[in-house]
Amino acid sequence: MAQYIVKGTKEYWQAISSLFMGSFATFAILYSPQPLIAVFAEQFAVTPAMASLTVSLATGPLAVCMLLAAWLSDAVGRKKIMAIALVFSAVLMILAALSANFSTLLLIRTLHGIILAGFPAIAMVYVNEEFHPAITGLVIGIYISGNSLGGLAGRLIVSTLSDLWSWQIALASIGAVSLLSGLWFWRSLPESRHFAVRRLPIRELGAAFGNLLHNPLLVAVYTISFLIMGSFVALYNYIGCVLLAPPYNLSQTLVGLIFVVYLVGTFSSTLMGRLSDREGKAKILVVGLVIMLAGCLITLNLNLYLKILGIAIFTFGFFGAHSVASGWAGQGAATDKAQSTALYLLFFYCGASILGAAGGTLLMSYGWQGVVVLIGAALLAAVSIAVILLKICGAGAALKHNSAG
Predict the structure, then answer these.
(1) Long-range pairs for 124-127 at CB < 8 Å and ≥24 separation?
(2) What is the CA radius of gyration of the chain?
(3) Residue 233 pLDDT > 70, yes or no?
(4) Are residues 315 and 211 in the same domain?
(5) What is the pLDDT of residue 236?
(6) By residue range, what is the domain housing residue 81?
(7) What is this structure's pTM?
(8) Which of 192, 217, 246 corresponds to the end of one domain?
(9) What is the 3-state composition of the chain as percent helix, strand, coil, each rounded to the nearest 5?
(10) pLDDT single digits (tens) 368-401
Protein backbone atom coordinates (compact mmCIF):
# COMPACT_ATOMS: atom_id res chain seq x y z
CA MET A 1 0.00 0.00 0.00
CA ALA A 2 1.42 3.38 -1.02
CA GLN A 3 2.29 5.71 1.82
CA TYR A 4 0.24 8.78 2.65
CA ILE A 5 1.74 12.27 2.73
CA VAL A 6 2.52 13.09 6.37
CA LYS A 7 3.60 16.24 8.21
CA GLY A 8 7.25 17.23 8.28
CA THR A 9 8.29 15.61 4.98
CA LYS A 10 9.50 17.34 1.83
CA GLU A 11 6.44 16.03 -0.02
CA TYR A 12 4.15 17.56 2.62
CA TRP A 13 5.55 21.06 2.11
CA GLN A 14 5.55 20.71 -1.67
CA ALA A 15 1.92 19.57 -1.65
CA ILE A 16 0.80 22.22 0.86
CA SER A 17 2.46 25.09 -1.02
CA SER A 18 1.14 23.85 -4.38
CA LEU A 19 -2.45 23.51 -3.17
CA PHE A 20 -2.31 26.89 -1.43
CA MET A 21 -0.98 28.66 -4.52
CA GLY A 22 -3.50 26.90 -6.75
CA SER A 23 -6.33 27.91 -4.43
CA PHE A 24 -5.01 31.48 -4.28
CA ALA A 25 -4.85 31.77 -8.08
CA THR A 26 -8.30 30.24 -8.61
CA PHE A 27 -10.11 32.68 -6.35
CA ALA A 28 -8.04 35.67 -7.46
CA ILE A 29 -9.08 34.98 -11.07
CA LEU A 30 -12.72 34.38 -10.13
CA TYR A 31 -13.33 37.48 -8.03
CA SER A 32 -10.74 40.09 -9.06
CA PRO A 33 -13.09 41.72 -11.65
CA GLN A 34 -15.63 42.51 -8.90
CA PRO A 35 -14.16 45.96 -8.01
CA LEU A 36 -14.10 46.85 -11.73
CA ILE A 37 -17.85 46.55 -12.34
CA ALA A 38 -18.34 50.34 -12.34
CA VAL A 39 -15.26 50.76 -14.55
CA PHE A 40 -16.54 48.20 -17.07
CA ALA A 41 -19.95 49.90 -17.11
CA GLU A 42 -18.32 53.20 -18.07
CA GLN A 43 -15.68 51.74 -20.40
CA PHE A 44 -18.08 49.62 -22.45
CA ALA A 45 -21.24 51.80 -22.05
CA VAL A 46 -23.30 49.09 -20.35
CA THR A 47 -25.42 49.09 -17.20
CA PRO A 48 -23.88 48.05 -13.87
CA ALA A 49 -26.14 44.98 -13.94
CA MET A 50 -24.66 43.97 -17.31
CA ALA A 51 -21.14 44.72 -16.09
CA SER A 52 -21.69 42.40 -13.11
CA LEU A 53 -21.87 39.51 -15.60
CA THR A 54 -18.07 39.61 -15.60
CA VAL A 55 -18.34 37.87 -12.23
CA SER A 56 -21.53 35.80 -12.50
CA LEU A 57 -20.66 34.37 -15.93
CA ALA A 58 -17.57 32.86 -14.33
CA THR A 59 -19.10 31.49 -11.13
CA GLY A 60 -22.24 30.09 -12.79
CA PRO A 61 -20.52 27.75 -15.29
CA LEU A 62 -17.99 26.86 -12.59
CA ALA A 63 -20.70 25.33 -10.40
CA VAL A 64 -22.17 23.21 -13.19
CA CYS A 65 -18.92 22.18 -14.89
CA MET A 66 -17.40 20.91 -11.64
CA LEU A 67 -19.70 17.89 -11.97
CA LEU A 68 -18.08 17.00 -15.29
CA ALA A 69 -14.58 17.92 -14.08
CA ALA A 70 -14.89 15.36 -11.28
CA TRP A 71 -15.80 12.67 -13.83
CA LEU A 72 -12.93 13.71 -16.11
CA SER A 73 -10.40 13.58 -13.28
CA ASP A 74 -11.40 9.97 -12.54
CA ALA A 75 -10.51 9.07 -16.11
CA VAL A 76 -7.43 11.25 -16.70
CA GLY A 77 -5.88 11.92 -13.29
CA ARG A 78 -6.14 14.50 -10.53
CA LYS A 79 -2.93 16.49 -10.98
CA LYS A 80 -3.16 16.77 -14.76
CA ILE A 81 -6.66 18.25 -14.76
CA MET A 82 -5.87 20.68 -11.94
CA ALA A 83 -2.63 21.89 -13.55
CA ILE A 84 -4.23 22.40 -16.96
CA ALA A 85 -7.09 24.34 -15.34
CA LEU A 86 -4.71 26.69 -13.52
CA VAL A 87 -2.35 27.39 -16.44
CA PHE A 88 -5.03 27.85 -19.10
CA SER A 89 -7.19 30.08 -16.88
CA ALA A 90 -4.16 32.29 -16.15
CA VAL A 91 -3.48 32.67 -19.88
CA LEU A 92 -7.16 33.55 -20.40
CA MET A 93 -6.85 36.24 -17.71
CA ILE A 94 -4.02 37.87 -19.66
CA LEU A 95 -6.16 37.68 -22.81
CA ALA A 96 -9.05 39.27 -20.89
CA ALA A 97 -6.84 42.33 -20.38
CA LEU A 98 -6.61 42.65 -24.17
CA SER A 99 -10.39 42.53 -24.73
CA ALA A 100 -11.41 45.03 -27.38
CA ASN A 101 -15.11 44.87 -26.56
CA PHE A 102 -17.49 43.76 -23.83
CA SER A 103 -18.67 40.64 -25.67
CA THR A 104 -15.12 39.31 -25.86
CA LEU A 105 -14.60 39.97 -22.17
CA LEU A 106 -17.80 38.09 -21.28
CA LEU A 107 -16.79 35.16 -23.50
CA ILE A 108 -13.44 34.90 -21.75
CA ARG A 109 -15.07 35.09 -18.33
CA THR A 110 -17.45 32.27 -19.30
CA LEU A 111 -14.47 30.16 -20.40
CA HIS A 112 -12.87 30.98 -17.05
CA GLY A 113 -15.77 29.36 -15.23
CA ILE A 114 -15.67 26.27 -17.43
CA ILE A 115 -11.91 25.73 -17.21
CA LEU A 116 -11.44 26.69 -13.54
CA ALA A 117 -14.00 24.01 -12.64
CA GLY A 118 -11.08 21.61 -13.01
CA PHE A 119 -9.44 22.81 -9.82
CA PRO A 120 -11.64 23.38 -6.70
CA ALA A 121 -13.53 20.08 -6.48
CA ILE A 122 -10.55 17.94 -7.47
CA ALA A 123 -8.15 19.65 -5.07
CA MET A 124 -10.21 18.56 -2.07
CA VAL A 125 -10.43 15.01 -3.45
CA TYR A 126 -6.63 14.97 -3.80
CA VAL A 127 -6.29 16.00 -0.16
CA ASN A 128 -8.62 13.24 1.04
CA GLU A 129 -6.85 10.62 -1.09
CA GLU A 130 -3.19 11.51 -0.62
CA PHE A 131 -2.75 12.97 2.88
CA HIS A 132 -2.83 10.87 6.03
CA PRO A 133 -6.40 10.80 7.41
CA ALA A 134 -5.19 12.25 10.72
CA ILE A 135 -4.28 15.59 9.07
CA THR A 136 -6.85 16.00 6.29
CA GLY A 137 -8.82 18.54 8.32
CA LEU A 138 -5.70 20.67 8.78
CA VAL A 139 -4.77 20.44 5.10
CA ILE A 140 -8.27 21.32 3.90
CA GLY A 141 -8.12 24.30 6.28
CA ILE A 142 -4.86 25.50 4.72
CA TYR A 143 -6.36 25.04 1.27
CA ILE A 144 -9.44 27.09 2.24
CA SER A 145 -7.16 29.82 3.60
CA GLY A 146 -5.82 30.14 0.05
CA ASN A 147 -9.43 30.79 -1.03
CA SER A 148 -9.77 33.70 1.36
CA LEU A 149 -6.37 35.23 0.57
CA GLY A 150 -6.87 34.82 -3.17
CA GLY A 151 -10.28 36.46 -3.08
CA LEU A 152 -8.95 39.31 -0.93
CA ALA A 153 -5.68 39.87 -2.80
CA GLY A 154 -7.34 39.70 -6.20
CA ARG A 155 -9.79 42.45 -5.26
CA LEU A 156 -7.18 44.67 -3.61
CA ILE A 157 -4.53 44.27 -6.34
CA VAL A 158 -7.01 45.04 -9.09
CA SER A 159 -8.44 48.05 -7.22
CA THR A 160 -4.98 49.51 -6.62
CA LEU A 161 -3.49 48.89 -10.06
CA SER A 162 -6.57 50.12 -11.89
CA ASP A 163 -6.37 53.39 -9.90
CA LEU A 164 -2.65 53.77 -10.61
CA TRP A 165 -2.66 52.70 -14.26
CA SER A 166 -5.58 50.90 -15.94
CA TRP A 167 -7.93 47.94 -15.59
CA GLN A 168 -6.01 46.21 -18.39
CA ILE A 169 -2.76 46.29 -16.44
CA ALA A 170 -4.62 45.18 -13.32
CA LEU A 171 -6.10 42.07 -14.99
CA ALA A 172 -2.85 41.24 -16.79
CA SER A 173 -1.02 41.37 -13.45
CA ILE A 174 -3.46 38.91 -11.90
CA GLY A 175 -2.97 36.68 -14.94
CA ALA A 176 0.83 36.81 -14.64
CA VAL A 177 0.80 35.98 -10.91
CA SER A 178 -1.68 33.17 -11.51
CA LEU A 179 0.43 31.75 -14.35
CA LEU A 180 3.46 31.56 -12.05
CA SER A 181 1.30 29.87 -9.42
CA GLY A 182 0.01 27.36 -11.97
CA LEU A 183 3.51 26.49 -13.18
CA TRP A 184 4.68 26.07 -9.59
CA PHE A 185 1.73 23.76 -8.97
CA TRP A 186 2.48 21.66 -12.07
CA ARG A 187 6.14 21.29 -11.08
CA SER A 188 5.79 20.77 -7.33
CA LEU A 189 2.58 18.84 -6.52
CA PRO A 190 3.46 15.19 -5.81
CA GLU A 191 1.90 12.68 -8.18
CA SER A 192 -1.11 10.73 -6.91
CA ARG A 193 -0.34 7.44 -5.18
CA HIS A 194 -3.83 6.45 -4.08
CA PHE A 195 -5.60 7.23 -7.32
CA ALA A 196 -6.58 4.56 -9.81
CA VAL A 197 -7.97 5.39 -13.24
CA ARG A 198 -11.72 4.83 -13.25
CA ARG A 199 -13.42 5.44 -16.58
CA LEU A 200 -17.04 5.67 -15.55
CA PRO A 201 -19.26 5.84 -18.66
CA ILE A 202 -20.89 9.25 -18.75
CA ARG A 203 -24.32 7.59 -18.91
CA GLU A 204 -23.60 6.15 -15.45
CA LEU A 205 -22.61 9.53 -14.03
CA GLY A 206 -26.21 10.34 -13.13
CA ALA A 207 -26.47 7.11 -11.18
CA ALA A 208 -23.33 7.99 -9.21
CA PHE A 209 -24.76 11.39 -8.27
CA GLY A 210 -28.07 9.73 -7.43
CA ASN A 211 -26.37 7.33 -5.03
CA LEU A 212 -24.65 10.21 -3.27
CA LEU A 213 -27.92 12.09 -2.94
CA HIS A 214 -29.44 9.04 -1.23
CA ASN A 215 -26.81 9.27 1.54
CA PRO A 216 -28.50 11.24 4.39
CA LEU A 217 -25.20 12.35 5.94
CA LEU A 218 -23.90 13.75 2.66
CA VAL A 219 -27.21 15.45 1.84
CA ALA A 220 -27.03 17.13 5.26
CA VAL A 221 -23.49 18.38 4.53
CA TYR A 222 -24.50 19.59 1.06
CA THR A 223 -27.48 21.45 2.56
CA ILE A 224 -25.24 23.14 5.11
CA SER A 225 -22.94 24.25 2.27
CA PHE A 226 -25.96 25.82 0.50
CA LEU A 227 -27.00 27.67 3.65
CA ILE A 228 -23.58 28.98 4.71
CA MET A 229 -22.50 30.24 1.30
CA GLY A 230 -25.90 31.80 0.69
CA SER A 231 -25.61 33.59 4.04
CA PHE A 232 -22.06 34.70 3.33
CA VAL A 233 -22.89 36.18 -0.08
CA ALA A 234 -26.06 37.84 1.21
CA LEU A 235 -24.10 39.61 3.94
CA TYR A 236 -21.20 40.75 1.75
CA ASN A 237 -23.38 41.72 -1.23
CA TYR A 238 -25.46 44.20 0.75
CA ILE A 239 -23.48 45.37 3.78
CA GLY A 240 -21.78 47.89 1.47
CA CYS A 241 -25.16 49.44 0.61
CA VAL A 242 -25.76 50.00 4.33
CA LEU A 243 -22.36 51.54 4.97
CA LEU A 244 -22.51 53.86 1.95
CA ALA A 245 -25.84 55.29 3.15
CA PRO A 246 -26.60 57.47 6.20
CA PRO A 247 -25.72 57.51 9.03
CA TYR A 248 -22.32 56.10 7.98
CA ASN A 249 -21.76 57.70 4.53
CA LEU A 250 -18.49 55.84 4.03
CA SER A 251 -16.57 56.20 0.79
CA GLN A 252 -16.40 53.37 -1.75
CA THR A 253 -12.71 52.92 -0.91
CA LEU A 254 -13.39 52.47 2.80
CA VAL A 255 -16.24 50.04 2.12
CA GLY A 256 -13.90 48.07 -0.15
CA LEU A 257 -11.41 47.74 2.69
CA ILE A 258 -13.99 45.66 4.59
CA PHE A 259 -12.76 42.72 2.52
CA VAL A 260 -9.61 42.84 4.68
CA VAL A 261 -11.59 40.92 7.33
CA TYR A 262 -11.19 37.93 4.98
CA LEU A 263 -7.84 37.59 6.75
CA VAL A 264 -9.59 36.18 9.82
CA GLY A 265 -10.86 33.42 7.54
CA THR A 266 -7.28 32.50 6.68
CA PHE A 267 -6.70 31.83 10.37
CA SER A 268 -10.03 30.20 11.22
CA SER A 269 -10.06 27.72 8.32
CA THR A 270 -6.71 26.29 9.40
CA LEU A 271 -7.52 26.40 13.13
CA MET A 272 -10.93 24.76 12.85
CA GLY A 273 -9.70 22.25 10.30
CA ARG A 274 -7.04 21.15 12.81
CA LEU A 275 -9.57 21.06 15.65
CA SER A 276 -11.92 18.90 13.58
CA ASP A 277 -9.18 16.27 13.27
CA ARG A 278 -8.95 16.16 17.07
CA GLU A 279 -12.46 16.88 18.33
CA GLY A 280 -14.59 15.55 15.49
CA LYS A 281 -16.11 17.27 12.48
CA ALA A 282 -19.68 17.56 13.77
CA LYS A 283 -18.72 19.34 17.00
CA ILE A 284 -16.47 21.90 15.32
CA LEU A 285 -19.01 22.45 12.55
CA VAL A 286 -21.63 23.39 15.17
CA VAL A 287 -19.15 25.82 16.74
CA GLY A 288 -18.41 27.48 13.39
CA LEU A 289 -22.09 27.89 12.56
CA VAL A 290 -22.92 29.37 15.97
CA ILE A 291 -20.07 31.87 15.54
CA MET A 292 -21.51 32.87 12.15
CA LEU A 293 -24.95 33.40 13.69
CA ALA A 294 -23.53 35.50 16.53
CA GLY A 295 -21.59 37.70 14.11
CA CYS A 296 -24.64 38.21 11.92
CA LEU A 297 -26.74 39.36 14.90
CA ILE A 298 -24.02 41.79 16.03
CA THR A 299 -24.26 43.59 12.66
CA LEU A 300 -27.72 44.82 13.74
CA ASN A 301 -25.98 47.22 16.11
CA LEU A 302 -25.89 50.76 14.73
CA ASN A 303 -22.38 51.43 16.08
CA LEU A 304 -20.02 51.25 13.10
CA TYR A 305 -17.19 49.54 14.97
CA LEU A 306 -19.48 46.90 16.44
CA LYS A 307 -20.98 46.32 13.00
CA ILE A 308 -17.53 45.71 11.52
CA LEU A 309 -16.67 43.46 14.48
CA GLY A 310 -19.81 41.47 13.70
CA ILE A 311 -18.71 41.08 10.07
CA ALA A 312 -15.29 39.83 11.22
CA ILE A 313 -16.84 37.30 13.65
CA PHE A 314 -19.25 36.12 10.94
CA THR A 315 -16.35 35.69 8.48
CA PHE A 316 -14.30 33.78 11.06
CA GLY A 317 -17.15 31.34 11.55
CA PHE A 318 -17.86 30.97 7.83
CA PHE A 319 -14.38 29.97 6.72
CA GLY A 320 -14.07 27.60 9.69
CA ALA A 321 -17.41 25.93 8.97
CA HIS A 322 -16.66 25.72 5.24
CA SER A 323 -13.30 24.12 5.96
CA VAL A 324 -14.89 21.38 8.08
CA ALA A 325 -17.92 20.74 5.86
CA SER A 326 -15.98 20.62 2.59
CA GLY A 327 -13.56 18.06 4.00
CA TRP A 328 -16.47 15.98 5.27
CA ALA A 329 -18.06 15.92 1.80
CA GLY A 330 -15.05 14.04 0.45
CA GLN A 331 -14.40 11.79 3.42
CA GLY A 332 -18.06 10.90 3.89
CA ALA A 333 -18.31 9.23 0.48
CA ALA A 334 -17.11 5.61 0.37
CA THR A 335 -16.79 5.86 -3.42
CA ASP A 336 -17.22 8.66 -5.97
CA LYS A 337 -15.31 11.11 -3.77
CA ALA A 338 -14.71 13.51 -6.65
CA GLN A 339 -18.41 13.56 -7.46
CA SER A 340 -19.28 14.13 -3.80
CA THR A 341 -16.99 17.14 -3.54
CA ALA A 342 -18.39 18.49 -6.81
CA LEU A 343 -21.93 18.18 -5.43
CA TYR A 344 -20.87 20.01 -2.27
CA LEU A 345 -19.59 22.91 -4.36
CA LEU A 346 -22.65 22.86 -6.63
CA PHE A 347 -24.88 23.33 -3.57
CA PHE A 348 -22.38 25.92 -2.31
CA TYR A 349 -22.66 28.16 -5.37
CA CYS A 350 -26.40 27.59 -5.78
CA GLY A 351 -26.80 28.93 -2.25
CA ALA A 352 -24.81 32.00 -3.27
CA SER A 353 -27.12 32.64 -6.23
CA ILE A 354 -30.47 31.95 -4.54
CA LEU A 355 -30.00 33.44 -1.07
CA GLY A 356 -27.83 36.23 -2.48
CA ALA A 357 -30.67 37.34 -4.75
CA ALA A 358 -33.27 36.93 -1.98
CA GLY A 359 -31.19 39.18 0.27
CA GLY A 360 -31.46 42.02 -2.24
CA THR A 361 -35.25 41.79 -2.29
CA LEU A 362 -35.43 41.87 1.51
CA LEU A 363 -33.00 44.79 1.69
CA MET A 364 -35.25 46.88 -0.57
CA SER A 365 -38.37 46.04 1.45
CA TYR A 366 -37.14 45.82 5.05
CA GLY A 367 -33.64 47.26 5.15
CA TRP A 368 -30.66 45.55 6.77
CA GLN A 369 -32.93 43.93 9.36
CA GLY A 370 -34.60 41.96 6.55
CA VAL A 371 -31.25 40.65 5.33
CA VAL A 372 -30.31 39.61 8.87
CA VAL A 373 -33.62 37.75 9.27
CA LEU A 374 -32.84 35.80 6.07
CA ILE A 375 -29.29 34.99 7.16
CA GLY A 376 -30.41 34.17 10.70
CA ALA A 377 -33.09 31.76 9.48
CA ALA A 378 -30.63 30.04 7.14
CA LEU A 379 -28.03 29.67 9.89
CA LEU A 380 -30.54 28.40 12.44
CA ALA A 381 -31.48 25.70 9.92
CA ALA A 382 -27.79 24.88 9.40
CA VAL A 383 -27.14 24.70 13.17
CA SER A 384 -30.13 22.37 13.59
CA ILE A 385 -28.81 20.02 10.91
CA ALA A 386 -25.31 20.09 12.40
CA VAL A 387 -26.65 19.31 15.90
CA ILE A 388 -28.47 16.28 14.49
CA LEU A 389 -25.21 15.16 12.84
CA LEU A 390 -23.42 15.65 16.17
CA LYS A 391 -25.93 13.40 17.94
CA ILE A 392 -25.69 10.75 15.23
CA CYS A 393 -21.89 10.79 15.29
CA GLY A 394 -21.91 10.65 19.10
CA ALA A 395 -24.27 7.68 19.09
CA GLY A 396 -22.13 5.93 16.47
CA ALA A 397 -18.96 6.47 18.50
CA ALA A 398 -20.65 5.13 21.66
CA LEU A 399 -21.88 2.05 19.80
CA LYS A 400 -18.39 1.41 18.42
CA HIS A 401 -16.90 1.77 21.91
CA ASN A 402 -19.42 -0.64 23.46
CA SER A 403 -18.79 -3.16 20.70
CA ALA A 404 -15.07 -2.96 21.28
CA GLY A 405 -15.64 -3.41 25.02
Answers:
(1) 124/326, 124/327, 124/329, 124/330, 124/341, 125/70, 125/73, 125/78, 125/330, 125/337, 125/338, 125/341, 126/19, 126/78, 126/79, 126/82, 126/189, 126/192, 127/19, 127/327, 127/330
(2) 21
(3) yes
(4) yes
(5) 82
(6) 1-192
(7) 0.77
(8) 192
(9) 85, 0, 15
(10) 999 999 999 999 999 999 999 998 886 554 434 3
